[in-house]
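Job type: complex structure
Entries:
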Amino acid sequence: STGGKRRQQNRNRSTQPQDASRGSSLPDYNSSDQKTACRKHELYVSFRELGWQDWIIAPDGYAANYCDGECSFPLNAHMNATNHAIVQTLVHLMNPENVPKPCCAPTKLHAISVLYFDDNSNVILKKYKNMVVRACGCH
Amino acid sequence: AGSSFSVDGNVEAHAGFMHRRLRTHEKREMQKEILSVLGLPHRPRPHLLSQGKYNSAPLFMLDLYNTISSEDKSQILDRYPSMRTTQSPPLATYQETAFLNDADMVMSFVNLAEYDREFSPQRRHHKEFKFNLSQIPEGEAVTAAEFRLYKECVSGAFRNETFLLKVYQVVKEHPNREADLFLLESRVLWAAEEGWLEFDITATSNLWVMSPVHNLGLQVSIETSSGQSIGCKEAGLVGRDGALEKQPFMVAFFKVSEVHIRSAR
């Protein structure tokens, strides 16, 4: 089975487009080095930092999540989110404990309300409900 | 967790989320993403407002926003009672809160009228108000609309007066004589009264949304108990030259219209 696994990795590597410009070589999924393991990060998006405080009255920002590491999307001409999800599934079968499960199912977002000025200095309070994200990712 | 650094290095507590400086391209991507979620073609550039001071409409809308947020929170608080804190009562009336629950969007509109019309003693003093409702997104229907005026306590000659305030919808304008008006509401006021006056203009607003050419604004006139026409300022009504937080404005509550267009059989 070890031989099979190595052959599988070689095949994986050969199917992965090498992004010479970035010179990145795919990490060895079995290495003990978890530095590039897929992780979900949390980021607070501040409207003030975006320089938008002159037109957004409230909230002052919102909490967002994003994933980084092995499950990043090297979205170039050959790899799109769906392909990546398939590759992740393959990797998932062999090393379930290494990466989180990829998922392309629609994800419902929390409802948010935003208060902001329009171009004519009218004020708009809008409720954004039933927002669904259809992207694939490390959910 | 639970502590973060803002751009200027101060520690801000945003529950559990790190706050790091965004790179320029990240900023641009994030701005694009947020505008698409908000359904906006570009980032609005409102007229320069006096720094850090909001006038009456944004203050009122901020109160509605806090009402919504506290309601979301109260749903959470119901689930986690230990988080309950004392909250100051909202400015919006109970009725407005009911409109708010039902609405998908609320808009306040800046008064566009430039001047008060003061005619000769034979003709009536009145104040004009105009609002531009043409920017409303497709498919939004007005479920409720209010015109709000702030009245201050009157001292001086009229301090013991009662006033009759009338709000009209302007139906047709004429170059050399008074416009044709439709009376929306009349109300008796005491000189000593102080606070916000709300007038229901839902039907008028719906007409303005559906037929912008009919949007000729509102007129307010005031008489004393002896029938003398006086200026709004003398009766304590705050106009464009008054305090920012007491400026007149209108607010409309919208719901995405449920009307489904059926193709003919």
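Summary: Chain A has two helices and seven strands. Residues 37 and 110 of chain A are 27 Å apart (CA to CA).
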